[in-house]
């Protein structure tokens, strides 16, 4: 009989706790600083108390990035990796970021950076688009323990992330340090039968520079949380709808496994870093409903698999002095299988819906699958994604860089229920070249830092769709080609001025186009997204102005401030199509199952974000941030030349005011000497917003106020850490995209163990 995951967790806690006590004893014996050599016996001890502290002034990577002129925030993951936090939860707590997730762990995610979302936002893993690695290896399932830091840019991007984006980007930088031979392991269990585990290891041979780094993760959850808001409905045999309806989610299982292995050389004559690697992952996702929650699904699921080969090379003083070369390339093969063949309609209590026929109750059939006709499809993607950067330092403080980005997605869609699927497969090819140049300069005694960007983009989309045509009783296969191509030029600039030692003024502007992505053009049935080949490029003109002040030290007190104002103008904004209240007859018509991406028209977002961080005696940390923006529809006239009904309304299905507060306090020597106990408290607020054009009252997503509480205990050996987190402590109603209810209260336990110098 397989032991319950909770029992396994408790066993590991007791076992590793014993190991940690042994490690502490060994440390006391083996510490050479605590053993007096025989030849020193009887001699007076040298006093070493005279040297109290050594102060080294310099900027960390975080400080350098945040004062470089870009509107950027750096999220460090060291503490979070020891807790039951996902990468998306970390992002959702940061200033100006809203993670739009359609339910629990593993559900579809979109990101909003102060009103910018969709294809305007770049989501990267080590500078390569996360979509290259597939749904089974992205920010939804990569644990914070694999991550060194997260860079969140708003507006213009630096040269190493130059691409077809204008609203900003999230770049996840995975751990790369191989200076120590270490290994880490973590396991957690919590509410809704959620089990997670991850492993990581690094090794470097000092003589040859040969290095290895690897990491892996596993996630399983039933996602069986209870919903009770207006989004959940019950329909009786007479067709009468009960709303709200309290129910426990089913057909919502998520399972994911993935890993990355890299082998190469560091700090050699011919390369600072050279790594080749493999990234593999797969997941199984049950789809519990469509775009809205009104209709539950049973038996609709998808399975994905991705295999990627990696190449990373970097070298300073490449061929000549002051010339640096960086190459980052990935070749991946992804597959997505979708099945939907159950032909009964269900209610949220898990039972089959019934109707009255000839005076009797009979099961209601859908006439196909849960969402339209019966479906068994497979989508294969072969993706090549490479980025090259050549940078030259002209003189100290002046750097010129040339960047080339190439991306090609070869997609094949097959209908497995059709015997002729091989001949009727739809094939699509999306290619993109981006050539850009950056000029970075430091002037006025290095107080002023500027970065000027120009980029040229070419795009080509080619789709071949086959269909059977009957002429005079004879069937033949006709292929239809749809080809579109375009090119455009974009530009931007950033500036940072150090007025006084702790105060930086930061400004940026950008004017650029964004092409629709492969998923937006050709759809994603596993995410209920229909194709729209008529999508046009989106144009954005953005401005950012802000400041960063601190950190200021006042004895044991340390304070830093950040604020940024922005003005963003979008033309032909690409967004998910929402319901227009003038085009429906009753409220239930807004319970859509699918949607597509459309060009909305002109929009304008003006707002600001701010954050204050306070630290006391290196033991108490407090961070408060908020973001407010008015992302308004600015299309004055409709297609017929009449004044547009929704002119001046807030863009629907987007929260426009968020607030977060995070507190942490460290207790030393609690329960055991040299132990550390950390206590955490987080609260978040999202203001109400609408999901339907016209803003009917019934489409309002209510205000949300959540509280999280957590504790982590580091044992004296510093190798074992145990933590507990209570999320959504008050079991508040929490919603997201199209008012989908998210999990209520959950409790999670986690263990982390570090092995040092294992080889």
Automatic annotation (TrEMBL):
Top-rank lineage group of the source organism: Bacteria
Segments for region (Disordered): 26-47, 363-382
Localization per record: Cell outer membrane
Membrane topology: Multi-pass membrane protein
Signal peptide bounds: 1-20
InterPro entries: Beta-barrel_TonB_sf (IPR036942), Plug_dom (IPR012910), Plug_dom_sf (IPR037066), TonB-dep_rcpt-like (IPR039426)
Coiled-coil ranges from the UniProt annotation: none
Major subcellular location class: membrane
Family, similarity comment: Belongs to the TonB-dependent receptor family.
Protein name per UniProt: TonB-dependent receptor
Organism whose genome encodes this protein: Flavobacterium pokkalii
Lineage: Bacteria, Pseudomonadati, Bacteroidota, Flavobacteriia, Flavobacteriales
């Amino acid at each position: 009989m397989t032991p319950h995951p909770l029992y396994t967790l408790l066993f590991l806690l007791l076992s590793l706790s014993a190991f940690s006590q042994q490690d502490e004893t060994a440390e006391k014996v083996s510490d050479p600083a605590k053993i007096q050599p025989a030849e020193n016996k009887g001699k007076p001890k040298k006093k070493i108390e005279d040297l109290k502290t050594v102060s080294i002034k310099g900027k960390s990577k975080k400080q350098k990035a945040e004062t470089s002129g870009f509107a950027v925030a750096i999220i460090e993951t060291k503490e979070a990796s020891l807790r039951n936090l996902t990468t998306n939860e970390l992002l959702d707590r940061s200033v100006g970021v809203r993670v739009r997730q359609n339910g629990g762990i593993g559900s579809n995610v979109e990101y909003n950076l102060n009103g910018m979302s969709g294809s305007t936002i770049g989501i990267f893993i080590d500078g390569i688009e996360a979509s290259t690695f597939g749904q089974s290896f992205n920010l939804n399932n990569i644990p914070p323990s694999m991550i060194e830091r997260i860079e969140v840019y708003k507006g213009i991007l630096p040269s190493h992330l130059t691409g077809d984006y204008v609203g900003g980007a999230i770049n996840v930088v995975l751990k790369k340090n191989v200076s120590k031979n270490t290994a880490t392991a973590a396991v957690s269990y919590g509410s809704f039968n959620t089990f997670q585990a991850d492993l990581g290891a690094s090794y470097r041979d000092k003589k040859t520079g040969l290095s290895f780094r690897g990491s892996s993760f596993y996630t399983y959850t039933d996602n069986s949380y209870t919903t009770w808001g207006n989004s959940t409905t019950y329909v009786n045999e007479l067709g009468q709808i009960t709303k709200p309806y309290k129910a426990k989610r089913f057909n919502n299982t998520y399972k994911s496994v993935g890993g990355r292995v890299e082998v190469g050389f560091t700090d050699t004559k011919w390369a600072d870093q050279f790594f080749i690697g493999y990234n593999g992952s797969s997941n199984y996702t049950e789809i519990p409903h469509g775009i809205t929650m009104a209709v539950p699904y049973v038996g609709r699921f998808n399975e994905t698999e991705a295999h990627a080969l990696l190449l990373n090379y970097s070298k300073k003083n490449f061929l000549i002095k002051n010339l640096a070369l960086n190459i980052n390339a990935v070749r991946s093969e992804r597959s997505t299988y979708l099945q939907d063949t159950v032909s009964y309609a269900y209610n949220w209590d898990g039972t089959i819906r019934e109707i009255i026929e000839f005076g009797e109750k009979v099961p209601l059939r859908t006439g196909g699958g849960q969402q339209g006709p019966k479906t068994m499809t497979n989508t294969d993607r072969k993706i090549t994604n490479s980025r090259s950067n050549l940078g030259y330092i002209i003189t100290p403080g002046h750097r010129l860089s040339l960047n080339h980005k190439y991306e090609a997605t070869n997609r094949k869609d097959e209908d497995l229920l059709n015997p002729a699927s091989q001949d009727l497969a739809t094939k699509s090819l999306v290619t993109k070249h981006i050539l850009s140049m950056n000029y970075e300069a430091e002037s006025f005694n290095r107080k002023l830092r500027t970065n000027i960007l120009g980029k040229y983009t070419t795009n080509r989309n080619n789709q071949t769709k086959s269909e059977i045509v009957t002429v005079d009783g004879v069937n033949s296969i006709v292929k239809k080609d749809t080809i579109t191509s375009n090119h455009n030029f974009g530009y931007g600039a950033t500036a940072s001025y150090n007025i006084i030692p702790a105060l930086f003024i930061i400004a940026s502007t950008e004017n650029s186009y964004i092409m629709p992505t492969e998923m937006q053009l050709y759809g994603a049935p596993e995410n209920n997204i229909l194709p729209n080949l008529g999508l046009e490029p989106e144009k954005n003109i953005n401005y950012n102005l802000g400041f960063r002040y601190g950190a200021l030290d006042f004895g044991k007190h340390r304070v830093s401030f950040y604020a940024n104002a922005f003005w963003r103008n979008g033309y032909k904004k690409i967004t998910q199509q929402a319901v227009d209240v003038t085009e429906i007859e009753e409220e239930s018509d807004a319970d859509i199952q699918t949607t597509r991406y459309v060009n909305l028209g002109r929009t304008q977002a003006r707002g600001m974000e701010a954050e204050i961080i306070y630290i006391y005696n290196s033991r108490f940390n407090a961070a408060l941030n908020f973001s407010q923006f008015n992302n308004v529809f600015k299309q004055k006239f409709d297609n017929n030349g009449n004044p547009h009904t929704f002119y001046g309304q807030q863009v629907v299905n987007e929260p426009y005011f968020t607030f977060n507060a995070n507190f942490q306090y460290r207790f030393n020597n609690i329960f055991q000497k040299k132990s550390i106990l950390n206590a955490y408290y987080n609260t978040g607020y999202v203001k109400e917003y609408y999901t339907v054009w016209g803003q009917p009252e019934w489409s309002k997503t209510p205000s949300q106020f959540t509280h999280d509480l957590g504790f982590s205990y580091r044992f004296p050996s510093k190798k074992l850490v145990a933590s507990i987190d209570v999320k959504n402590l008050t079991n508040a109603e929490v919603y997201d995209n199209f008012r989908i209810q998210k999990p209520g209260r959950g409790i999670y336990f986690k263990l982390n163990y570090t092995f040092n110098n294992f080889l």
